[in-house]
Design goal:
The protein is an alpha/beta fold. The chain has 45 helices and 28 strands. Strands 17-14-16-15-19-20-18 form a seven-stranded antiparallel beta sheet. A five-stranded antiparallel beta sheet has the order 5-6-12-8-9. Strand 5 and strand 6 form a beta hairpin. Helix 39 crosses helix 41. About 55% of the residues are buried.
């Protein structure tokens, strides 16, 4: 029934009153606006339910206060961690309480007894980073470990890839502290069946007594109806209540309860010694059926994991740059499936022995590299730790790899993780594929072959009614087959909105009545996350979908090329909808993505949150003109356009490119701010400013001007702007170097030309002394110096950027036509030719320019690997500390920096494991973004530089990076070109023969 305007007004008033009370009584964030609620309306499932509001408490007490206020107001409450649930567990229409930002501490650690107590919002990877120095880890290693919280894992009874050895979340949870819906705080742990010596309130004693009585009453029914497989996480864990020898652990009833019984405040965990040695055997199969049939035999060698990767996932992985070398090094031929068998005993010799046994077993099963397709296969042994890590990363990214299809149809999670006994696995998967085919689709499969639990996703387009009906039919037929095999319809990812309605057919009416009895006994007013496990809606209720029946994206004007994707805006819709909410962008260490989230921990500031906001905006769910609104700009304000998501998001969300669309829409609707003009038009006025450098730089030396710039242009008074100089880089000759030398074009970008000509001078010297004939061509139109248009793109002035790129293409086209490399120093400028240029022009000339564009280090490494680079270099320092520019990392162009620096004699090259430096072009100069810029730099970059001694060289190729390092540490960073020029100078002044780089590089 449609809601009336009067009802909307009443709801709005009630929400405002509730938000006001929450804001008065807690210090954490209270988010009741449409944009923030929209960001919490989805998880990693295909559902979307708009919450009434979101609370981000700073303490456990504040979380419980929010629970009490919501209960008083008659609102339901849904606790949320990383928001990565695949079945809709963390979406509801009441109050969402986000525990991930602040409630993430390790409260106690007992190394000797291998236990710890943590708050529910701590992320698994963060926990393990804190445990590692003590030789311990928490081994429920889910693929979402970089963002999954312990509370969420307990709620879903997560399993992970190594549950064959370590068990599930339930097996590793010792106790939990939690509040009931009425606010009563209880400790859930081991209790004797007669409840003697129970240290609890009367309410706790009565509750536990009732639960133990239920377990005794229903023991026979539970034994009859509960599946006998380890991977059973559906429903409530009634089997935790049946009579045991001595005690029952009441925490095991909360594990897997999906936030429906109590609000968790602490979790006590069982810890294990870290894995010190391991080997992998990649078992290849020419037949998927044979791979599944072999799994029951491979587990007899007692591996800790056997993981499946099928042909589809391998094919998709080969299209993702970060996984190409991993697959190339570990996969032989064209298998239909591989099983990754992992051995990790303390004795490495034992691991190697079992790896040999694995090869022998495969041979005994009839597999060989020279056999026909059905029995083709064998084992590729992986003992290199680096490659093992790469394979683990690829396997962990399996879900997102599967979701990287750019078509309307996507692999959909609903029969995702059924578990069947291993002897039935091959028949089950074959019949499952037949079900998919019968309904006009196909499925992708990967994951935990060791326990008969595969992640299976048929490809469907849930915007279409016919595909929704197919989903329903596939679910019913699949679950019937699982029951036939006495398996579990929920083997890892829980129930949520997807599977809860099927519990009765899985467990029977009596067990379902028990589930309802437990829910009512814990939560009689149905406050805690209702609609999960019991009394669930239909799984195919389209009003609850991310794409409901009335979902539409009207045609919109876009400025970049999105034609690789389907949908409105020339494919912009499809690009935005690629985000599946799995949350890889929420990782806190490793790689670069997402630097602003790492600094703020706000859902608004993570790639996922921005993508969700864009989707809601273009589909009209955030009101008219949302794409160009102030709220949208606030959503993107802290996006530093680092492009890390382009590389590290397994589905390739390119938020930097999407931000250009928003900036262009906003510029068209609202015009430009003064700061936008100062930044965007820099290439047009840089030459003039250089002529009057003292006047142009006056602002840096005047506190008054700094304040005025902050007030009227939004440029932070705490920052010194880059200083213009009169002696800008220029070359009277368009070509320098030996006439017979190999040709190269040097792209003199605006930043190095106007501010740091030393870098261009150094690069020119290195190239000429290396024997190259260097071209510095004048613009084809004889006008101002060439520019890549980067600053215009950052202001949304796409037409101006196109004009600059057109001039550049016209000038460089003759060189690219004859294969001359185009070499640049500034990563953000040069790599524009490899990225945005092709989003603005798709002609052959532009593609040729793009193909020949190389960063300075890329070019030198390529020449060295071909044996053509001859640079006599001398020692200049003992150590270089290197920070990589975000765009270098995004385009896989950072490794050459390390490689080329290692040519300098006696120079120990150490890379700072940093995300974005935080300056990011004009971002770090903004008055409203200055502090976030500093916070980003302080995560790892600036502390690492401060720790370096004075003799250590600090190296950074990015103009912005060098400025941030200077501002934050008073240390001057050098471009690689200057380091090489210094080394050349040392070699010239030193008569001792110095190395000449002729050999291929390794690195």
């Amino acid at each position: 029934m449609a809601i009336t305007e009067a009802e909307k007004s009443k709801n709005s008033a009630e929400n405002s009153a509730l938000a006001g009370r929450l804001a008065r009584e807690i210090t954490g964030e209270v988010l009741f606006d449409r944009f923030n609620r929209g960001r919490y309306a989805t998880d990693a499932s295909f559902y979307q339910i708009m919450p009434a509001g979101v609370v981000v408490p700073r303490t456990v007490d504040e979380a419980l206060r929010a629970l009490a206020i919501a209960r008083d107001d008659g609102r339901i409450v849904t606790p949320r961690g990383g928001g990565t649930s695949q079945c809709g567990q963390t979406v509801n229409d009441g109050i969402v309480i986000d525990l991930s930002k602040h409630l993430n501490r390790v409260l106690t650690l007992d190394v000797e007894n291998r236990t710890c107590v943590v708050e529910p919002g701590i992320v698994l990877d963060d926990l393990n980073r804190q445990l590692r120095p003590h030789g311990l880890w928490f081994p429920v290693d889910v693929s979402t470990a970089s963002r999954a919280t312990i509370g969420g894992m307990a709620g879903n009874n997560s399993c992970g890839g190594r549950s064959l050895r370590y068990g599930t979340m339930r097996d590793n949870t010792l106790s939990m502290d939690a509040a009931l819906a009425d606010g009563a705080l209880l400790h859930f742990g081991e209790v004797s069946r007669d409840l003697t010596q129970l240290n609890s309130s009367d309410e706790g004693r009565d509750l536990f007594g009732d639960m133990l009585a239920l377990g005794q009453r229903e023991a026979h029914e539970i034994a009859e109806k509960f599946p006998k497989v380890q991977r059973r996480v559906g429903g409530y864990n009634l089997d935790a209540l049946v009579p045991r020898n001595a005690a029952n652990n009441m925490a095991h009833l909360l594990v897997g309860s999906e936030g429906t019984l109590a609000f968790t405040t602490k979790v006590e965990l069982k810890l294990w010694p870290v894995i010190r040695n391991k080997v992998l055997g990649i078992c290849h199969f020419g037949s998927f059926y044979q791979a599944m049939d072999a799994a029951q035999h491979l587990v007899k060698l007692r591996p800790i994991a056997v993981e499946l990767v099928d042909r589809t996932m391998l094919a998709l992985g080969r299209e993702i740059a970060m996984f190409q070398p991993i697959i190339g090094a570990s996969i032989r031929g064209d298998p239909d499936a591989v099983l990754i068998v992992e051995f990790a005993e303390e004795d490495q010799a034992e691991n190697v022995r079992r790896l040999k046994q694995l090869g022998e077993l495969m041979a005994d099963l009839g597999f060989g590299w020279d056999r026909e397709q059905r029995k083709w296969g064998g084992v590729v042994e992986i003992t290199d730790p680096g490659l093992q890590t790469g394979i683990a990363d690829f396997r962990a990214a399996g879900l997102n790899v599967m979701m990287s299809m750019k078509q309307e149809g996507k692999p959909v999670s609903f029969v995702e993780d059924c578990a069947v006994p291993l002897p039935h696995l091959a028949d089950y998967t074959e019949r499952l594929n037949a079900i998919f085919a019968r309904h006009g689709t196909r499925g992708t499969m990967y994951a935990h072959a060791s326990e008969g639990c595969l992640h299976v996703r048929p490809v469907l387009n849930l915007k279409l009614e016919k595909d929704v009906k197919a989903m329903r039919a596939i679910a019913e037929e699949t679950f019937e087959m699982v029951r036939e095999y006495k398996g579990s319809h929920s083997g890892e990812h829980g129930d949520g909105l997807v599977r809860s309605e099927f519990h009765e057919t899985m467990f029977g009416a009596r067990i379902i009545a028990d589930f309802r009895e437990i829910k009512h006994r814990f939560d009689p007013d149905n406050v805690l996350n209702p609609g999960k496990i019991v009394d669930a809606p239909k799984m195919d209720d389209r009003t609850l979908f991310r794409y409901p029946p009335d979902y539409r994206v009207p045609e919109l004007k876009t400025v970049l090329d999105w034609s690789a994707y389907p949908g409105a805006g020339g494919g912009f819709q499809g690009a935005v909808e690629m985000c599946n909410n799995n949350g890889a962008c929420r990782k806190l260490e490793g790689g670069v993505m997402c630097p602003s989230y790492r600094a703020t921990r706000n859902e608004k500031d993570v790639t996922r949150g921005r993508a969700n906001t864009l989707r809601l905006a273009i589909s009209g769910q955030l009101g008219p003109d949302a794409l160009s609104s102030d709220e949208m700009m606030d959503t993107l304000k802290l996006c530093v356009s680092c492009k890390a998501c382009r590389h590290e998001c397994p589905v390739g969300i390119d938020m930097a490119k999407m931000k250009i669309e928003v900036l262009a829409a906003r510029a068209a609707r609202h015009g430009l701010s003064l700061r936008d003009r100062l930044v965007g038009y820099l290439p047009r006025y840089a030459a003039l400013a250089s002529r009057f450098a003292p006047l142009a730089n006056w602002r840096n030396n005047s506190p008054l001007l700094r304040k005025l710039f902050q007030k009227f242009a939004g440029i932070s008074a705490q920052r010194a702007l880059p200083a213009f100089r009169r002696d800008v880089f220029s070359s009277d000759a368009e070509t320098v170097g030996p006439a017979e030398g190999r040709e190269v074009v040097l792209f003199a970008d605006t930043f190095n030309r106007a501010y740091e000509r030393e870098n261009l001078d150094a690069a020119l010297r290195v190239l000429v002394e290396g024997g190259y004939r260097v071209h510095i061509p004048k613009p084809a139109d004889n006008g101002r110096p060439l520019c890549c248009g980067r600053t215009f793109l950052s202001a949304g002035l796409v037409d101006h950027a196109r004009t600059e790129l057109d001039r550049l293409v016209a000038t460089y086209a003759p060189f690219a036509a004859r294969g001359v490399p185009i070499v640049g120093l500034e990563p953000s400028c040069l790599l524009t030719l490899r990225d945005e240029l092709l989003s603005l022009r798709s002609d052959a000339t532009a593609k040729s320019i793009s193909a020949h564009a190389l960063l300075f280090e890329e070019f030198l490494v390529r020449e060295a690997e071909a044996g053509r680079l001859q640079l006599p270099l001398g020692p200049i320092a003992g150590k270089a500390l290197v920070h990589g520019h975000c765009h270098q990392k995004s385009f896989g162009a950072f490794k050459p920096v390390e490689q080329i620096l290692r040519l300098v004699p006696d120079l120990n090259v150490e890379t700072i494991q940093s995300s974005c430096c935080g300056m990011a072009g004009a971002f770090g100069y903004g008055a409203e973004t200055y502090q976030t810029s500093i916070d980003m730099a302080e995560l790892s970059l600036l502390p690492a530089v401060r720790r370096a001694d004075d003799a250590t060289l600090i190296v950074a190729d990015g103009t912005s990076c060098r400025h941030q390092i200077k501002d934050g540490t008073e240390r001057s960073a050098l471009h690689v070109a200057r380091v090489l020029a210094m080394s050349l100078e040392r070699a010239r002044s030193n008569p001792t023969p110095s190395p000449i780089a002729k050999e291929p590089l390794h690195g």
